[in-house]
Amino acid sequence: METKIIHKIEQIIKQNNINFIDLKTIDLIGRLHHISVPYEAGILESLLKEGIGFDGSSYGFSKVEQSDMILIPDFSSAVVDPFRTAPTLSVLTEIHLTDSNKTRFSQDGRFVAKKAEKYLSDTGIADSSLWGPEFEFYIFSKVEFDTRTALSYYKIEHQEEFFANAYHAANPFDIYDDFRDEASLLFKQMGIDVKYHHHEVGERGQQEIEIQFDNLLAISDKIVLAKYLLFNLARKHNIFITFMPKPMFQQAGNGLHAHQYLLKKGKNIFYGKGKYGNLNELALSYIGGLLKHAPALCAFTNPSTNSYKRLVPGFEAPVAITFGKANRSAAIRIPSYVKNPDETRFEYRPPDATANPYLLMSAMLMAGLDGIKNKIDPIKEGLGPIDTNVYDNKHNVKFLPKNLEEALDALEADNEFLKQGDVFTDDLIQQWIKTKQHDIKSIATMPHPYEYKMYFNL
Predict the structure, then answer these.
(1) What is the DSSP letter of 256?
(2) Which of 196, 224, 361, 407 is deepest in the core (most CB within 10 A)?
(3) Where are the domains of the chain?
(4) Contact 94, 340 (CB under 8 A)
(5) The one catalytic residue among 108, 174, 200, 370
(6) Catalytic site includes residue 134
(7) CB 40 within 8 Å of CB 16
(8) How far is CA 111 from the centre of its chain?
(9) Is the pLDDT confidence value at 324 over 90?
(10) Which fold has domain 114-455?
């Protein structure tokens, strides 16, 4: 198998006159890093056998015995990088320890995703899962920000300014449709198939690109590559994009909605003809698991302090721990437009792109499987369906955590479902909590510019 992979990669290298092999990986919180290795005879075999050493502590990982770790390429993920001047082959990697067995590192997101897929198969419930994310992001013409001891500010300039709902706005008013076209073509070049793209609700430059379904590991890889592509394309055009959940006051937030369903022997096992949303009891139990564990999931699906400026009750934000066909305030929405039994599904709406995609997808899968194993009925639990205003007094609805601190508390209290099959480990969960608590403390001690407006002359 290794010989076949090397032969295939050598053909790609020859066809594209490749000069460099670029090893890419994300750190614990999801930020992308890379190391470039000049291509020469024998380098592929060397990389597969020995890998490239790096300091794992600089990536935010907790130390096991020492911080030295190894990156080993997964050449099945190789794509020609469209943004490097010298022809470069981009390859995602696996993180290993430096022991004699080169043990896989438990905090490596790609390893977690592989374990989640294996656990799914081992349960016998399904063979695989399919995921379809929606990328929401803003495009700005200029951005400045800084924070120092005696200075803190951000300043955004935007070329678009609609004075009504900008959802599916048409050109010439939608001025970034050509950017989305170009991005979609590059997505295709990098093996990412786009379903469609359009202007989103946000009146100051909000965009959406939705991509086609793929399995858990592959779709997580594609999220990493898609963000890399969009950031680089924005730099090329001298504009700025952000996936921040709430980059602007009084503007729609950015989500990373995740459509999902399970397959067994190639068949969608969520379909139930004539049932509510055409979802069967298995699908409802999966939904029940997601909703039961929703507060704890927020630690991975909405892992930034900024996430909770988007998740605010009273708007269209998906904050209600319930499900329905038409309610965009619900955490889970069943698309009414889906008529094909093979594509019957629902979308989990709380996530945003500040998440580590591997941990995000794996955590959702583990919650859903826990629901199936324990036959959690969301209807009996009073979690829906609700297709009317969730804020009506007749609905006794629970809501997602109000802030990151509440989400981390929920994760500490409810994490056994994540550890089934050793998918998430205690050291990963504790390191995640520690890292995110640092974010909370950083914000808590930093004066906000609006506080000057409220309190400076009080």
Answers:
(1) -
(2) 361
(3) 2-105, 114-455
(4) no
(5) 200
(6) yes
(7) no
(8) 16
(9) yes
(10) Creatine Kinase; Chain A, domain 2 (3.30.590)
User: Is 208 designated active site?
Assistant: yes
Tokens 């069967």, located at residue: 280
CA torsion, ordered 331, 332, 337, 338, to nearest 10 deg: 150
Beta strands 206-211 and 79-80, pairing class = unpaired
d(Cα 18, Cα 209) in Å, to the nearest integer?
30
Judge if the upstream peptide bond of residue 385 is cis by omega within 30 degrees of 0: yes
Across the range 239-256, mean pLDDT stands at 96
Question: In the CATH scheme, what is the code of domain 2-105?
Answer: 3.10.20.70
pLDDT digits (tens, 9 = 90+) for 335-386: 988 889 999 999 999 999 999 999 999 999 999 999 999 999 999 999 999 9
Is the pLDDT higher at 70 or at 389? 70
Per-residue pLDDT band for 164 (boundaries 50, 70, 90) equals: confident
**Catalytic residue, candidates 136, 174, 214, 352:** 136
Active site residue 328: yes
Q: Is 228 helix (H, G, I), strand (E, B) or coil?
A: helix
Give the pLDDT confidence of 411-438 residue by residue, as tens digits.
999 999 999 999 999 999 999 999 999 9
Q: Percent helix, strand, coil in the chain (nearest 5)?
A: 35, 20, 40
> Which of 328, 342, 422, 451 does the annotation list as catalytic?
328
**DSSP result, 374-430:** TT--TTTTT-----S-TTSTT----B--SSHHHHHHHHHHS-GGGGGGGSS-HHHHH
| Structure-block tokens of residue 159 | 């070329």
Q: Which residues of 157-167 are buried (b: 16+ CB within 10 A; e: fewer)?
A: ebebebeeebe
CB atoms within 10 A of CB 112: 29
Task: Count the Cβ atoms, other than its own, within 10 Å of residue 29.
Answer: 17
Residue 316 annotated in active site: no
Q: How far is CA 127 from CA 83, 267, 364, 374, in A?
A: 36, 10, 16, 19
What Cα–Cα distance (Å) separates residue 256 from each residue in 28, 291, 432? 18, 17, 20
Structure confidence by residue, pLDDT tens digits, 62-119: 766 667 899 999 999 999 999 999 999 999 999 999 888 899 999 999 999 999 999 9
Strand positions, DSSP E, 160-305: 194-199, 206-211, 240-242, 258-264, 267-268
Higher pLDDT, 25 or 4: 25
Catalytic residue among 2, 45, 50, 55: 55
Q: Phi, psi (5° rounding) for residue 444?
A: -65, -30
Strand partners, 240: 140
Q: What are phi and psi of 294, to 5 degrees?
A: -55, -45
Q: Active site includes 349?
A: yes
